[in-house]
Design brief:
heterodimer; A: 267 residues; alpha/beta; six-stranded mixed β-sheet; B: 313 residues; MetI-like fold; flat; transmembrane (chain B); MetI-like_sf (chain B)
Chain lengths: 267, 313
């Protein structure tokens, strides 16, 4: 049995679950930020996470690609642990090279873009494919050009990040994540640092991605996007999931008073 | 005249605004300062030109003297070797200081504390006298016996002592510069890189250090310049550098001042060349900034930069 099948049988993971979280906890010292998160994101679906700041939604996202280490619970991506190997009922931390390899399959887009500021757009896009995947330069460049065309920035390949607008930078960041052919893309408030008139172009790229069947977990304040694109909506508050459901229904008719209060403030 | 024309466009024969004259503020302090400065310059230049004790002709005669040239070469060699070693050691110490391990951090802090705290001259003489502490260096393995053994005095030549002492000392300063540079790179950069699957070493080499260089190069250039001058300390342990060579000549001929002029000239010359080099390094590492070039920088670049056909500034 493959590790994936073994994990799926052992923890009752649905075969199509791309992200599977059970009882995920995270503490910083005495401060408990996540208090037992259960969630499943099926392959090809879009999960949107909303909630007030400090609710733990970004921390949960960062746990998925092991930028944060879990304090408890399990988190599987495509049926496998990201930072651990399960052997004889124990979780062994994997060595760095294996962690890097698994992280490479999980794309992440940050609120503050985090493009490598000393590299051109093209260099940003080919860096990881060259260094992590060992892809030949020609192939990496060709792929990067296709991706840049997809986010509508073909003419910016030779530019440095600071010469681009925030919306353009975020589209480059999305292309950079796509260059690794990730199984799942994590978005950490991708439009929160943008001027209002630039939000639309980034959301459009994300909409296209969702339509192409990419599995996405999106922490966002864009309720409209969640309603239109999301397959499930998760509302988090104070480290727990308060409510989840089909976005359209949940936004129209929230069950929990906390969800209702939050939605009334952001809508 | 149309009605749409604004009121102030109407020409009046004598507008009181046209007669106003701006009288610039008088900067009396600056004028006095200029006069004093010019006076000082005049006195100094006259002294330099008329005092025969400067013996400019003697100085000129020694400028390209073979011994002086050999001394200059030794000084340059020392600077390059020490700086290279100090960059390697300093980078390692800096990485230890930003590492998550408390032991490595403390070791690096102690290193910086000691080698920055003890005067370079004392460190130099200490390493030169290492044989007083350890007569021999030997390696013995259990069951095999001694593998090798050397007399400390055989390998701790003045030159080696100078390189070891000054590079360890310089590394203390560079470690702090490099650490500050690493700290100046926003943490989002390494997060994004690790999210893409780059390893710790790759992140350091490809993402952090190249961006830190913009903050590291300017102070490191200053360090290199002060190191060049610091190498004159090796005179104390009889390394035949530029200053030592000059000293040994004027100890014989008593032409003290002309030879000091020669030494000063060569230090100034090398420092000037290094400053120009530093300027280009800074430009290279700041290339993603696209800062506008200052007129002085442009002058220097046009005067010294290698020209490539078809590449416009």
């Amino acid at each position: 049995m493959t590790p994936k099948a073994e994990n799926q049988a052992r923890f009752g993971v649905a075969p199509d679950a791309m992200v599977f979280a059970r009882g995920v906890r995270k503490s910083y010292g005495p401060l408990e930020v996540l208090k037992g998160i259960d969630a499943t994101v099926p392959a090809g679906s879009v999960a949107c996470i909303i909630g007030p700041s400090g609710s733990g939604k970004s921390t949960f996202l960062r746990c998925i690609n092991h930028l944060e280490q879990l304090s408890g619970g399990i988190l599987l991506v495509d049926g496998e642990f990201v930072g651990y190997d399960l052997r004889d009922g124990k979780l062994y931390e994997v060595k760095n090279s294996l962690l890097c390899k698994r992280r490479a399959d999980i794309g992440m887009v940050f609120q503050s873009f985090n493009l490598f500021s000393h590299m051109t757009v093209m260099e940003n896009l080919i860096e990881a494919p060259l260094r992590v995947r060992g892809m030949p330069v020609g192939e990496a460049r060709a792929k990067a050009e296709i991706l840049l065309a997809r986010v509508g920035l073909s003419d910016k390949a030779a530019r440095y990040p600071r010469e681009l607008s925030g919306g353009q930078q975020q589209r480059v960041a999305i292309a950079r994540a796509l260059a690794m052919n990730p199984k799942v893309l994590l978005f950490d408030e991708p439009t929160s640092a943008l001027d209002p008139e630039l939000v639309g172009e980034v959301l459009q790229v994300m909409r296209d991605l969702a339509a192409s069947g990419m599995t996405m977990v999106v922490v966002t304040h864009e309720i409209g996007f969640a309603r239109e694109v999301g397959d499930q909506l998760i509302f988090m508050d104070q480290g727990v999931i308060v409510e989840r459901g089909v976005p359209r229904e949940m936004i129209a008719n929230p069950q929990s008073p906390r969800t209702r209060e939050f939605l009334s403030r952001v809508l | 005249m149309s009605l749409a024309e604004p009121d102030n466009m109407i020409e009046r024969p004598s507008d009181p605004i046209d007669d106003l004259v701006v009288v610039p503020r008088r900067h009396y302090g600056i004028w006095i300062g200029m006069v004093v400065a010019l006076l000082f310059a005049f006195v100094i230049i006259r002294a330099l030109a008329t005092n025969p004790a400067f013996a400019w002709d003697v100085a000129a005669g020694y400028l390209f003297h073979p011994s002086i040239m050999r001394g200059l070469a030794k000084t340059l060699l020392l600077t390059v070797v020490i700086m290279a070693a100090a960059i390697v050691v300093g980078t390692i110490i800096a990485i230890m200081r930003v590492s998550p391990s408390l032991v490595l951090q403390s070791f690096a802090s102690a290193y910086v504390w000691f080698f920055r705290g003890v005067p370079a001259l004392i460190q130099l003489i200490f390493w030169f006298n290492l044989s007083l502490l350890f007569r021999t260096f030997s390696l013995s393995l259990p069951w095999i016996g001694p593998v090798f053994s050397v007399n400390t005095n055989d390998f701790m030549t003045p030159f080696v002592s100078a390189v070891v002492a000054l590079s360890l000392c310089e590394a203390g300063y560079l470690a702090e510069i490099i650490r500050a540079g690493i700290k100046s790179v926003p943490s989002g950069q390494s997060e994004a890189a690790s999210g893409l699957g780059l390893s710790y070493g790759q992140i350091l080499r490809r993402i952090i250090l190249p961006q830190a260089m913009r903050f590291i190069v300017p102070p490191t250039g200053n360090e290199a310049i002060s190191l060049l001058k610091m190498t004159s300390l090796v005179t104390f342990i009889a390394v035949d550098d530029l200053f030592y060579t000059a000293q040994s000549i004027y100890a014989r001929t008593f032409e003290t001042i002309p030879l000091l002029i020669v030494v000063a000239f060569w230090y100034l010359f090398v420092v000037t060349v290094m400053s120009i080099g530093q300027h280009f390094l800074e430009r290279y590492y700041g290339r993603s900034d696209k800062l506008d070039e200052s007129p002085f920088a442009r002058l220097i670049r046009l005067a010294f930069a290698p020209r490539r056909v078809g590449v416009l500034p």
